[in-house]
Design goal:
The complex is a heterodimer of chains A (about 240) and B (about 300).
Chain A (H helix, E strand, L loop, with lengths): L4 E10 L2 E11 L4 E5 L6 H9 L6 E6 L2 E2 L5 H7 L1 E4 L11 H8 L13 H6 L1 H5 L10 H13 L5 E5 L7 H16 L3 E5 L3 H7 L2 E6 L2 E6 L7 H9 L1
Chain B lengths: L7 H28 L6 H14 L5 H24 L7 H23 L7 E2 L9 E4 L2 E4 H23 L1 H11 L1 H6 L4 H26 L2 E2 L5 H14 L4 H21 L8 H15 L17
Antiparallel strand pairs in B: 1-4, 2-3
Classes of the chains: A alpha/beta (about 240), B mainly alpha (about 300).
Chain lengths: ~240, ~300
């Protein structure tokens, strides 16, 4: 079966410095795949290359088999890949509802009676605060808004860049619970995270990246030994 | 005493001037919002509109105004396509200098077209008929002043509605705060920029009509002085936000009008000095802009 998202020998350069080197990985339809690694490993850069924010120097990115390399971020978003960016990047001066409406810009099929309903069902808080200025929400609420905003586009593939960064432990639980709920809806997910163990436990498989290269692949069975395995391998 | 009393007449004229400058400020601010580009050539769009009105003086007024809008809108879209778009990823300095070049290029083209009859300056005779005074409550108000105020209020209200209620308006607001994230959400950069440029063209054409009624002799430097003053006003108001930029434009127009009315006729030569002294004062006291909110960084709450 054609994977939902495939990277083939992807190379990304920052000036003369390679940030991602010959990275190949696949995310099958309906899978939740993790991408972990130390700071500067190239995790965020990989997501940015998928979205067309930074150019790929070599290799290819395929969405459902078709190359999307070289396309603009907006056309990639419209092709069916949504990114929940690091730092959430919500529009603080706009209302919660307007933030969600912006997410509709990438929605391919319109016709749902209320295209925002899915996001409200997943995060009832967003419905309650729909008229509130998004900047007035707490960090955890903003993260839910960022995820909801990506979801209303009805993406085939959802990319998340460190969604638990800077959140309190109970809120992190809520974010991971939301990821499970999103996977159950059949959305393919590629999750970049710092919380290695939780990611390994949640994901169908997790790739470990270091210095822009794929170093190892972990499965949920490795969850309890995640830190030991990574440390032993990256020494 | 140099400063005479500021009467109702002066206030009405000052509001009229402020209204025109506010329209120009919105036109400049809209493009700045999505492109981070200060379009110095904005005045030349107005100038092109004014020449169109002059060259079509023998047409019915409605046709002449229609032609003005068509020319200015076409020119702004052409400017975006040939200059702004290829330079979009360049530094703001490169873009600003390029708009200077475009401004002088357009002025030269205007001069070449203008001088064909041997003189510089073309009268826009038909449209000048709107420039008559009517008395309202003892105050002589020129029709064009009323026109300027009404048109500015209606135009700004329509624009506010468009930005608040439509999808493209929402996308423009998002793009002017964080274009990269907007694009990641599927907002088409070309469409948003095109819309901003189109609207700024409509505003430039509107301003061209009003200014030409006020000053029917059109020359290549038409609207040049106004553009510089409005650019200053936009910066003084706060260029980061559309409404502060607009208020800045209005404020500098209004201040110019009031100071102009207060100065005795033989002292109006000091008008620019007085206005710019005020500008310096504002920038010293409030460098972020007269109407800019003092930035409070909201701590990241969990």
């Amino acid at each position: 079966m054609t994977p939902a998202l495939a990277l083939e020998d992807l190379e990304v350069l920052y000036g003369p410095v390679p940030a991602v080197r010959g990275l190949s990985l696949e995310v099958g339809k309906g899978e939740l795949v993790g991408l972990i690694g130390p700071n500067g490993a190239g995790k965020s850069t990989t997501l940015h290359a998928v979205m067309g924010v930074v150019p790929a120097a070599a290799g290819d990115v395929r969405l459902d088999g078709a190359s999307i390399r070289g396309r603009t971020p907006e056309s990639i978003a419209r092709a069916g890949i949504s990114l929940v960016p690091e730092g959430r990047r919500i529009f603080g001066e706009l209302s919660v509802e307007d933030n969600l409406r912006l997410g509709l810009s990438a929605r391919r099929k319109n016709g749902a009676v209320d295209p925002l309903a899915d996001a409200y069902a997943l995060f009832p808080m967003l419905a309650e605060f729909r008229r509130r200025q998004a900047g007035a929400l707490s960090g955890g609420q903003q993260q839910q808004l960022a995820i909801g905003r990506a979801l209303v586009a009805a993406p085939a593939v959802l990319l998340l860049d460190e969604p638990s960064l800077g959140l309190a432990p109970t809120i992190v639980d809520a974010v991971f619970a939301a990821l499970t709920a999103i996977r159950e809806r059949g959305v393919t997910i590629l999750l970049v995270e710092q919380r290695a163990q939780r990611t390994v436990a949640l994901a169908d498989r997790t790739y470990v990246l270091a210095n822009g290269e794929l170093r190892m692949t972990l499965t949920p069975a490795d969850a309890d030994d995640t830190d030991k395995l990574i440390q032993a391998y990256l020494q | 005493m140099i400063v005479a009393a500021v009467d109702a007449q002066t206030l009405v004229d000052a509001v009229g001037l402020g209204a025109v400058y506010a329209l120009m400020a919105v036109g400049i601010g809209l493009v700045f919002g999505v492109l981070r580009l200060v379009n110095f050539a904005y005045g030349q769009l107005v100038m092109a509109g004014a020449y169109t009105l002059a060259f079509t003086s023998d047409w019915p007024i409605a046709g002449s105004i229609l032609a003005c809008f068509a020319v200015v809108i076409a020119l702004s879209l052409a400017m975006e396509r040939t200059v702004f778009r290829p330079l979009r990823t360049q530094s703001p300095a490169v873009m600003l200098v390029t708009t200077f070049a475009v401004a002088f290029l357009l002025q030269s083209v205007a001069l070449i077209l203008d001088i064909r009859d041997g003189t510089i300056g073309e009268p826009a005779t038909s449209i000048a008929s709107l420039n008559q005074a009517i008395a309202i409550g003892g105050v002589d108000v020129r029709k064009v002043t009323i026109l300027a105020i009404v048109v500015a209020v209606v135009t700004l209200a329509l624009l506010a509605l468009l930005l608040a209620k439509t999808t493209i308006g929402l996308q423009m607001r998002a793009a002017s705060t964080d274009f990269r994230t907007a694009r990641l959400l599927g907002v088409r950069a070309d469409r948003v920029i095109g819309a901003a440029v189109l609207l700024s063209g409509v505003l430039a054409a509107t301003v061209a009509v009003i200014l030409t009624v006020q000053n029917p002799l059109v020359a290549p430097d038409f609207a040049l002085k106004e553009t510089i003053v409005v650019l200053v006003g936009v910066v003084v108001g706060g260029i980061d936000r559309l409404w502060t930029a607009t208020l800045g434009g209005f404020a500098i127009g209004f201040a110019t009008g009031v100071i102009n009315g207060a100065l005795p006729t033989d002292k109006t030569v000091f008008l620019p000095s007085a206005v710019f002294a005020l500008v310096i004062l504002v920038l010293v006291l409030r460098p972020a802009g007269l109407f800019a909110r003092t930035r409070t960084t909201v701590a990241d709450r969990v």
